[in-house]
Amino acid sequence: MAPALTEPPVRLAEPASFKGVSEYKEAFNTGPTAYQKDAEEKGTDKHPPAKYPHYLPTWEKVSYPPLEPFTHYEHGKDADPSFPDLIREGTTVEDLTPSIGAEVKGVQLSKLTDKGKDQLALFVAQKGVVAFRDQDLADLPIQEALDFGAYFGRHHIHQTSGSPKGYPEIHLVHRGADDTSSQDFLQTRTNSVTWHSDISFEEQPPGTTFLYLLDGPTTGGDTLFLNQAEAYRRLSPEFRKRLHGLKAVHSGIEQVNNSIARGGIAKRVPIATEHPLVRTHPVTGEKALFVNPQFTRYIKGFKKEESDYLLKFLFEHLAFGSDFQTRMKWAPGTVVVWDNRKTAHSAILDWDSGQRRHLARITPQAERPYETPFDEEKGY
Question: Nearest Cα to 337, choosing from 167, 99, 123?
Fold first, then answer.
């Protein structure tokens, strides 16, 4: 639906029912008040202009209606599991860890046939996250990049982020030249890690998701990923059984409040949504934890102390699970594709050189999270 071309009233949304064990955390100001137009378009004494100026963020003050439910078609179900249209002769695949992640060279995503796209969805569902090198997605006209992404689901328009002018479906991750504001954040925090599953507060969060590099620091700015399906499997059968049937509330309210407090925008009235703690993948059938400290606030039906206790354990289980995590390094021409249904991720703000970090995300929404019955015999 088209937005209303009027400025919405600026007011803080109501908080969730009660504050959970975690809080929404944003390590630097990504909004319009921190944006330095001249530094991005013309460069600074130390840093050149943005390589992709047509991808620089704008913050149009529009008001979108609530998202409407839709029927998602999962193309991974149609894929040939031998991947003949994706992994061809001359293509190299290197697994990054035994449990999550791969790096692929020798395939051009933008040139895939529909069969190749089906196989891409399945391949990413199996690997969790895949880095495709030497890609041309950033060099295509923005609309062509969006047309490619639309095959995988309805485009999501982020509720607070900047986007290229005229293309609100592109979510931009942007830290400008000479911006060292994350160092201010680290004056009061020990790290910048913010594990999350993208926009998990939406009724239909994303599935196959694309993030591609436009500008990046020489070193640093990597992205961590973890396998929430493997995290679920690491739990004992009795513990897994207890988690089934539980629902948690995921909130986007704090993200909007944070944006408004920093002089940013809110494109929609924020929502909080109940999702199962354990969700089933529609293609692989895997079960995965579906909680994250950035957006998951509390467990429905539990008292606060009970909810906090269980969520704290689950958040720490995810964060400490280095043996089901991987680290993606960015390079020019990199497109990272992940399945938002079985992974969580966090950017790493570890560089203080003032170099620009600028990426674009295409975020196709998928089905509403669901769970399938616990199998007593299998223990999951």
Answer: 123
Which pair of structure tokens corresponds to residue 328? 């993606």
Residue of 156, 250, 297, 361 with catalytic role? 361
198 belongs to the catalytic site: yes
Nearest to 124 by CA among 199, 210, 224, 221: 210
- According to the model, what pLDDT value does residue 327 have? 98
Give the C-alpha distances (Å, rounded to integers) separating 189 from 178, 183, 237, 264, 346: 21, 10, 36, 23, 16
Cα separation, 326 vs 346, whole angstroms: 11
Is residue 206 helix, strand or coil? strand
Burial classification of residue 221, based on how many CB atoms lie within 10 Å of its CB (0-12 exposed, 13-18 middle, 19 or more buried): buried
pLDDT category at 184 given cuts 50, 70, 90 is confident
Could you give the C-alpha distances from 329 to 4, 87, 209, 211, 213, in angstroms and in order? 40, 22, 17, 12, 11
C-alpha span between 279 and 372 (Å, rounded): 8
- The DSSP-derived string for 305-318 is HHHHHHHHHHHHHH
Which of 196, 250, 268, 297 is catalytic? The answer is 196
Predicted TM-score (pTM) of the model is 0.94
CA-based end-to-end distance of the chain: 40
pLDDT in tens, 123-179: 999 999 999 999 999 999 999 999 999 999 999 999 999 999 999 999 999 999 998
Tell me if residue 361 is catalytic.
yes
Query: Which residues contact residue 96 at a Cβ distance below 8 angstroms, ignoring those fewer than 6 apart?
Result: 102, 103, 326
Is 11 in the active site? no
Q: Of 275, 345, 356, 357, which residue is the catalytic one?
A: 345
Residue 196 annotated in active site: yes
Please report the beta strands in 290-342, taking only residues with DSSP state E, as ranges in sequence order. Answer: 296-299, 325-328, 335-339
Q: How far apart are CA 259 and CA 32, in angstroms?
A: 10
| Catalytic annotation, pick one of 118, 198, 215, 222 | 198
CB within 8 Å of 72: residues ≥ 6 apart: 153, 154, 204, 207, 365, 366, 367
Instruction: Please state the φ and ψ torsions of residue 76, each to the nearest 5 degrees.
Output: -60, -25
CA angle 151, 152, 157 (to 5 degrees): 100
Would you call 287 helix, strand, or coil by DSSP? strand
